[in-house]
Amino acid sequence: MVHRASGPAYTVRVPPADHDREERLEATRTAENGESFGDGAMVTVISGASKGTSLAIPSDVGASLRVGKAKDNDLVLGDDTVSRYHLAIGRTDRGLEVRDLGSTNGVRIGGARVESALVEPGTIVRVGEVELLVRVEAVGPQIAPSPEPRFGEAIGHGLPMRRIFGVLQRVARTNATVLLMGETGTGKDVLARSIHAESDRARGPFEVVDCGAIAPTLIESELFGHERGAFTGASSARAGAFERASGGTLFLDELGELPLDLQPKLLRVLEARSFRRVGGQKTLDADVRVIAATTKDLPREVRRGLFREDLWFRLAVVPLLIPPLRDRLDDLPALAERILAGSRETLADENDHERLRLAPEALGQLRAHDWPGNVRELRNVLERAALLARASGDAVIRAVEIEPPEIAGDASEVFRFRAGMTWREAKARVDSLLERRYLAWLLERHGNNASAAAREAQLDRKYLAEMARRHGLLDRK
Questions:
Q1: pTM more than 0.85
Q2: How close are the terminal C-alpha atoms of the chain, in Å?
Q3: 358-365: long-range contacts, CB 8 A cutoff, minimum separation 24
Q4: Cα torsion for 240, 243, 244, 250, to the nearest 10°?
Q5: What digits encode the pLDDT tens for the residues 14-28?
Q6: How many of the other CB atoms lie within 10 Å of CB of 319?
Q7: Reduced to 3 states, what is the DSSP secondary structure of residue 336?
């Protein structure tokens, strides 16, 4: 008997009848050195003595990965509840399939024992008492880059972004949780909206919760809702984000700011797909696809005890590191064109249809900047330049005004705000100045010895060195 795990089978959906596009897609399946690409499907052990071990699932139809206690398995698990040859995870023309190999304690998915099941990214498979997570490894050369320079609203002509688009094209129509990591301003919110727009849930709501902008005492109510009288000030019942997003997508922005005591509650919702309002007794279904974003290095936060390891595993079904703008300068012209087109629609009057464009010297200025604020900073710079150009009656932007990375004079200058500045932009500005000045002081104390500086700051050395290079305080290697 064949059982199907909840959710659709994991398959790659290719748009029909575009032979030129198919030829381009085939050309991207092989790297410059002839290395072939797969879809990045992985299995990761998330409990037991082998926790954290990951192995790629073979990409060929008919191939499989064998799991068990015997030493000749592909993935060896030493747990007493695991049989010598417990299960196989392989590929069929219908997707990824899990098969019990006649084990003693069985294979369970969602609490049900199965002999065979089709699974998608995000499925937890229980092997005896050991849990395995089916996920997508989005780092490395195994993912074929997209032949298209865009995904939804996101633009990227260079290889770093086209690799990300290649992953998202494969997982957008599944219910897999996607974790977007990267610096502030890199466009994680644009990617999240694009995933929703390209998914089977596109007609449903897209709900956003910024975990860094809500008081810690209110986050639980914002996520799960509350009943009347649940706490002081709860004068009426209120639906939370999981309820409001039912049938659609819930975007948890700045997830790294979620208080540690709330993380187990979020984990339970992701695993059980159900929740209760604060002060409520009724169990509600969580029919949502979760996309999360963070500027924090969550694996480092796990090591420091500030983020739960089990929640990290549950979120990192499809983990994506979004590159900073300084590492994708080839995308500058296209990004600038998109931003200026938006500025033209906002600033031009009804009779003004002339397109704003950048002069070569202005584009050169943009390429020379390090962009600590990434695409968000680029948008601010170009919108200001567009406003000045329109005011002078010029359709060509010949120069741009870029604020220096460190504000001169007294540090209180950083608190001079301007109209239209969002909370996140203001916070990023303060954080950037604090980060730069602290690192400059710290490295000077230790004679530019990153290891010694990291020990004093209680930071990972590689993380500190990368921050310092970003601010021009250490030479890039």
A1: no
A2: 57
A3: 358/333, 358/396, 358/397, 359/396, 359/397, 359/398, 359/399, 361/398, 361/399, 362/397, 362/398, 362/399, 362/400, 363/332, 363/333, 363/336, 365/399, 365/400, 365/402
A4: 90
A5: 233 333 434 333 433
A6: 21
A7: helix
